[in-house]
Amino acid sequence: MNRVIVRQVRKPLQMGTFEVYAIIEGEERIINIFSYKPDAEPNDKYWGQDTARIAALDFAKKWEETGGEVKEEIIYQTPE
Question: Is 31 exposed, middle or buried (0-12, 13-18, 19+ CB in 10 A)?
């Protein structure tokens, strides 16, 4: 099982974040960030602190269970 860490980061007058780190080869590496607005209702569907916290914890648990497998898909790219 892979190790993960979820940290809450609060900065004055800015959006707060829950940052998800993985321990990869003995080093902490950030793998995802979930933002929230401090002035939003805690359970606001898009910007609530509780919503972001739950999403960060769910992501961390999935990361642990899957062995850190990440699938990346390009959803938009500037035309050449």
Answer: middle
